[in-house]
Amino acid sequence: MSNSPKAKSGHEKGTLYLIPVGLGADDLSQSLPSANTALVNTLQEFIVENARTARRSLRAMGYTGNFDDAVFHILDKQTPPENIPSFLTNALKGINIGLLSEAGSPCIADPGQLVVKYAHENQVRVAPLVGPSSILLALIASGFNGQSFAFHGYLPIEKKDRVQRIRELENEVYRRNQTQIFMETPYRNNALVEDIISSCKSSTLLCIASALTTKDEFIKTLPAGSWKKQLPQLHKKPTVFLLYK
Fold this sequence. Notes:
Oligomer: single chain
CATH topology of the largest domain: Cobalt-precorrin-4 Transmethylase, domain 1
Strand content: 15-25%
Order of helices and strands: EHEHEHEHEHEHEHEEE
């Protein structure tokens, strides 16, 4: 790379920067601090889930570098764990590297944690940048317990297993007085809501937080039984679901 940053002298290692991305197509940059732009513009090596969408996100946050000179390591569900060390080879030599998620903050419901774990194991500094997290935004907007909560990621795909898991999470609400947070692949959102309503007590509170920070943002908390006559259209909209009492 003709303009690649020089490695640091001696034994000083680089930094792995965790770079947040906007939560929606119309929110790629407006919820990100301007200070992130200056930092991102010092980087030419990135770990991403998808190179095309990563380039779009970087441009939206003000990245002015030449992508022909940049390096993109692909980290997705198919990436073998043994490939992780190669992503940080240059960090061990003193070069700073950025880690991006597809949306929101890295390492939550995505494979970025594996890179961060390896960085810590090899004394590479990890620096998270400020930015949006759909999980935390949904929690603070729900009216639910913010001192004790658990995030469970994606629920099982099979209906029988999914319903069983929903009932287990509802039990945790009452047993622990704890907010339960989970999500679903956007095209299965409507099916998940129907399962929640049919599986939970009618008095159990359900918050639906969809398309956060975008023009289509929807956040509402109601007893599960009250959602039956006013279900929102959630198909293909990134959504976070929360249960409480």
